[in-house]
Amino acid sequence: MTIGPGTVIHPGVTLEGRTRIGAGCRIRSWVRITDSVVGDNVQVNDSCVIVESHVEDGCRVGPFSHLRPASHMKAGSHVGNYVELKKTVLGEGSKACHLTYLGDATIGAGVNIAPARLLQLRRREEAPHRHRGRRVHRQRLAAHRAGEGGGGAYVAAGSSITDDVPGAPSGLLAAGR
């Protein structure tokens, strides 16, 4: 276990296994970090659990967030109150502010996940692995990228989107089921 210079560890924190914490971090009370890598200048707020995950430089976690194994927060990303990640990559500068579950997902850079969202496994015949006997496929959300045209698409509250949304012009609203 290594802890970088200038990092502040508050009372009640548990660091286990091969955990590495970078410089200039602030780890608040009642946090458990196991076999994970935490970059420089990361803030982990109260009562978070981070297990077998990677949190890059400048991220903010919690409070009350849970990063399950194989989760990866890229530089400058943020997960807020009661957010759970499972086998999820959260892109640079992306945010999942509160009350959100992201499972088996890849979220692009600069994406803002609205509160109370559930992004989880879906069945697909070409899926490479199984979950509870069902074939599954990773979910992908991407923000607008230069040269692609469009950007700023929305998913309607309560929608269950099961197919790709092509083109995603600016202001597109995807709704379904």
Question: What are the key terms here?
Answer:
2 domains, UDP N-Acetylglucosamine Acyltransferase, domain 1, 24 strands, 177 residues, mainly beta, twelve-stranded parallel β-sheet, single chain, eight-stranded parallel β-sheet
Describe this structure in words.
- The chain has 177 residues and is mainly beta.
- It has two domains: 2-143, UDP N-Acetylglucosamine Acyltransferase, domain 1; 147-177, no CATH class.
- The chain contains no helices and 24 strands.
- The chain has strands at residues 2-3, 8-9, 14-16, 20-21, 26-27, 32-34, 37-38, 43-44, 49-51, 54-55, 60-61, 66-67, 72-73, 78-86, 89-90, 95-103, 105-107, 112-113, 118-119, 129-131, 134-136, 139-141, 154-155, 173-174.
- The strands form four sheets. Strands 2, 3, 5, 6, 8, 9, 11, 12, 14, 16, 18 and 19 form a twelve-stranded parallel sheet that branches. The protein has an eight-stranded parallel sheet with strand order 1-4-7-10-13-15-17-22, with no helix packed on it. It has a two-stranded antiparallel sheet with strand order 20-21.
- Strand 20 (129-131) and strand 21 form a beta hairpin.
- It is elongated.
- The termini are far apart.
- The model is unreliable at 121-129 and 144-150 (pLDDT under 50).
Overall mean pLDDT score? 81
Task: Tell me the series of helices and strands, N- to C-terminal.
Answer: EEEEEEEEEEEEEEEEEEEEEEEE
What amount of the residues lies in strands? 35-45%
Largest sheet: 12 strands, parallel
Taking the alpha carbons of the first and last residues, their distance comes to: 47 Å
Gross CATH architecture of the largest domain: 3 Solenoid
Uncertain ranges: 121-129, 144-150
Morphology: elongated
